[in-house]
Design a protein that fits this description.
Blueprint: E1 11-12, H1 13-20, H2 24-33, E2 40-41, E3 47-49, H3 51-66, H4 71-80, H5 82-108
Antiparallel strand pairs: 1-3, 2-3
Helix pairs in contact: 1-2
Length: about 110
Amino acid sequence: MHIDLPEKRYYKIGEVAKAFAVNTSLIRFWEKEFDIIKPKKNAKGNRLFTAEDIKNFKLIFNLVKERGFTLEGAKQKLKQNPEATFHNHELITKLEFVKAELVKIKNQL
């Protein structure tokens, strides 16, 4: 899944929810369930997500929404070997991008 967010230091919860096409309540729920997501909060208490949080959301989204893991299964997968899980997700994302580009080239021929 490609997430279209501008390059910024912090993202508001609405921006993150729109990028992932989910409700803000799901973002808040995942924040409580997964301790790898640690948004900063401003003086008003609004959540400000960093690029690292977005990367972690991508990983959780992939495990739960795309691969069908339960929340407990996703937590266990992240605890077992988080670096390998993230690395595999990055590879899959890059391969999907290459595949899409090849399909575009094929259609142009």
